[in-house]
Design brief:
three-stranded antiparallel β-sheet; 3 domains; Helix Hairpins; about 15% strand; five-stranded antiparallel β-sheet; SH3 type barrels; 8 helices; alpha+beta; Alpha-Beta Plaits
């Protein structure tokens, strides 16, 4: 490093230190002001979220639906507010140190334009994420199937959707790559049941037991509030190898279809046992044809064997 460069660097550092000391009170006040602005924006958004939640509770929206919707939208709004406050704060601090922010903003615009051309997939993700939020396709807390992979929606950003499956594995999907999306818990859910009974059973009596178990379950304090309607029995759905299949459906609150379905199957098993209704299981019955008669053939073979032995050995008494 030449002496001229070293002197210039030292002068620049000295000027920067002098300006920093001079601007220390102003800088402190600015940082405190932006911190208070950040806290105020966060508090205002939380208050607005609470007010909106109370207002939506007056509608006919199922329990928990408004909460998931607001959690998704206001989570995105808080991240956006944090980014704006941080960006404006950085620009103000640079301006205090004498940095011209006009060229920086112009350069940022040019860089943004270049990035938009070079990162088209990123722009595609952002646009798709915007429509996901606006159209309320999925919310945080929903159970969704994206491109064939199911899981609980943990995060929704402008760029990605994050799912966690039953095994705890986290799956991240760029919004632009989502081709098929199925929401299993929007507004209401349903437990679809395929109930198999033996061919010898009276179908009408079986349906009576099915309805009775569902009615008793709706009267319980634990599962009654989770069931939105009486069970729907569609009727005989198919004839299997060893069972007649009856298809039914239980409408439930969102994400409760699995709990309600498991409990209903448990109660139905006990009810079938009590009523003497057979639940078939895979088995195989073997029939011997009339021409075979394996026991008679075995006895005849033993008799012939004894007779031949008697002829060959005269001392053997006859059987």
């Amino acid at each position: 490093m030449t002496p001229e460069i070293a002197d210039a660097l030292t002068a620049a550092l000295r000027e920067f230190a002098t300006r920093a000391i001079t601007l220390l009170p102003t800088l402190t006040i600015t940082l405190v002001a932006f911190y208070l602005l950040y806290r105020a924006a966060d508090g205002a958004l939380r208050l607005l979220e609470k007010s909106a939640d109370n207002w939506l509770d007056r509608d006919d929206t199922p329990s928990g639906e408004s909460e998931k919707r607001l959690r998704t939208l206001f989570g995105f709004a808080r991240r956006l507010a944090n980014f704006l406050v941080l960006g404006v704060g950085v620009l103000v601090v640079l301006q205090l140190f004498g940095v011209q922010i006009g060229p920086i903003l112009a350069a940022a615009g040019v860089v943004g334009l270049a990035v938009s051309f070079g990162a088209q997939s990123l722009v595609k993700d952002v646009i798709a994420g915007t429509f996901i939020l606006i159209e309320n396709q999925i919310r945080v807390g929903d159970v969704a199937v994206i491109n064939g992979q199911g899981g609980l929606v943990e995060h929704i950003n402008l760029r990605t959707v994050v799912l966690r499956d039953l095994a705890g594995v986290v799956h991240v999907f760029p919004n632009g790559s989502i081709e098929k999306l199925a929401n299993m818990t929007k507004d209401w859910s349903a437990a679809v049941l395929d109930i198999g009974v033996a061919y010898k059973e009276d179908i009408d009596e079986v349906i009576v037991v099915i309805r009775k178990v569902a009615t008793e379950m709706r009267e319980t304090e634990q599962f009654g509030p989770k069931m939105l309607d009486d069970i729907e029995v569609f009727g005989v759905d198919s004839f299997g190898d060893s069972a007649v299949t009856i298809k039914c459906r239980l409408k439930t609150l969102p994400i409760e279809q699995w709990n309600v379905g498991r409990e209903y199957r448990r109660r139905l098993k006990y009810a079938f046992d009590e009523a003497g209704i057979e639940i078939p299981f895979p088995h195989r019955t073997l029939y011997f044809g009339e021409a075979s008669k394996p026991i008679e053939l075995l006895m005849r073979h033993e008799m012939e064997k004894s007779a031949s032995k008697a002829k060959s050995d005269p001392s053997t008494p006859p059987q």
